[in-house]
Amino acid sequence: MTILLGIAISLKAQSVLTLDSCRALAIANNKDLLISEQKSKAAYYDRKAAFTNYLPKVSATGAYLRNQKEISLLSNDQKHSISNLGTTASSQFQDVARQLAGAHPEYASLLQSIGEMDIATPLNNAGNSLVDALRTDSRNIWVGEVGITQPLYMGGKIRAYNKITGYAEEIAREGHDLELQEVILNTDEAYWLVVSLENKKKLAEGYLTLLKKLEGDIEKMIEEGVATKADGLTVKVRVNEAELSLTKVENGLTLSKMVLCQLCGIPLDTEIILVDIPLERSIAAAENPRFDMNQVYANRPEIRSLELAQGIYREKTNVARAEHLPTIALTGNYLVTNPSFYNGINNKFGGQFRVGVSVSVPIWQWGEGMYKVRSARTQVKIAEYQLTDAREKIELQVNQSAFQVKEAAKKLRMSESNLEKADENLRYATLGFEEGVIPPSNVLEAHTAWLSAQSEKIDAQIDVRLTKLYLDKSTGTLKK
């Protein structure tokens, strides 16, 4: 990163870029690449989160309830009876004492002395105490719980989710690699387009210089009477056409430089110079490129992503099946309440530990599980067809790229041969024109043929580089 910052800071000063520095700047600046990096991180955290499903979960819950009415263990009649237990007992004793005194007068004085004893008050107090003791005071209820749950068997769902998130993380990484290759491809295309237009600009400037020299020679010949005004007008038309072509090339070059600057993340008005503009550094043109399709399939991120997607759909089949299998979990918690009922009924916090095993067994869902499993299996089949189709298209793409590489090599050889002939033709035409034995029209034709040969050679040199780039991209070997 420090090196990239140094490159970016010094751009204004030196404005010289190599292909590697353009790639480095584009990789550091590309927003899609930064987004794919974040997607990879998100997939990594999703996999970490899925793994936690193997581990016990601990949770705490608290609640407060205010009830309008209090839960009562006794009815109002029962409360009244218990609270007046002494009064009732005293009244009943008096009735019994009178009956006994009438039947046994000898016990009358004893019964009278017993009847004068106050048994109502202590019994009433005892009854009131019992009523108060049975009061729940449940209008204010406090509940707290700390629980732990450990899955024992979830039908294979947890294992399937872990595999799915693992595949998803790998797909995100493959997507990042694919995005990286796209950035490199776009940067190289923009780089070589600027190189091509810079060379064509120089070619157009050189061609314009030749035509202007020829225009000056024609004007002198017209003054001497050895050339006609028609010859002069013909040359002037060619000069105007050359100036127009130069303007078009300059406009295209300006726009292509803006594109390259945007890809590299530098100001659009930066005056950049590319080290490959002279096109003097030759590149070996592959006459018969060789490749192993099995290695190509292993290198291509698209194939790897489709293979991983196939694995995801297989695991989704397992998830669909697991939803309709029994599940077993071990549970444990500590529950505290106020009022508590563990030592009578009192307005104090009291709690207890509980341990248990929960089992859930689906019994009948009208074939829902079967249909979901079959639906998931069709997704697996779709992924298989997509993978097969991608392999066929990639094989076609690689073979087309290899063919284009061979054609570019042939085109370069032919363009070099044509340029040699065009140079020789232009040299003879120029000498003949200076000796006065060749008319201006033949010289113009020689100039046009030379310009076309030069332009074809530039295109061929660029095509050799681009076709190799496309072959590397199709074989999955395009790396930074």
Polypeptide structure, described:
With 480 residues, the protein is α+β, with helices and mostly antiparallel strands. Helices cover 69% and strands 11% of the residues. The protein has 13 helices and 6 strands. The chain has helices at residues 2-14, 19-29, 31-51, 76-83, 85-103, 108-115, 120-133, 157-224, 229-264, 293-299, 301-322, 368-435, 440-475; strands spanning 16-17, 57-66, 140-153, 273-274, 327-338, 350-360. The strands form 2 sheets. Strands 2-3-5-6 form a 4-stranded antiparallel β-sheet, with no helix packed on it. The chain is rod-shaped, with a radius of gyration of 48 Å. The protein starts with a helix and ends in a 5-residue tail after the last helix. The model is unreliable at 1-14 (pLDDT under 50).
Percent in strands: 5-15%
| Beta strand count | 6
Low-confidence stretches: 1-14
Average pLDDT works out at 86
Largest β sheet strand count, sense and barrel closure: 4 strands, antiparallel
The rough form would be described as: rod-shaped
Question: How many helical elements?
Answer: 13
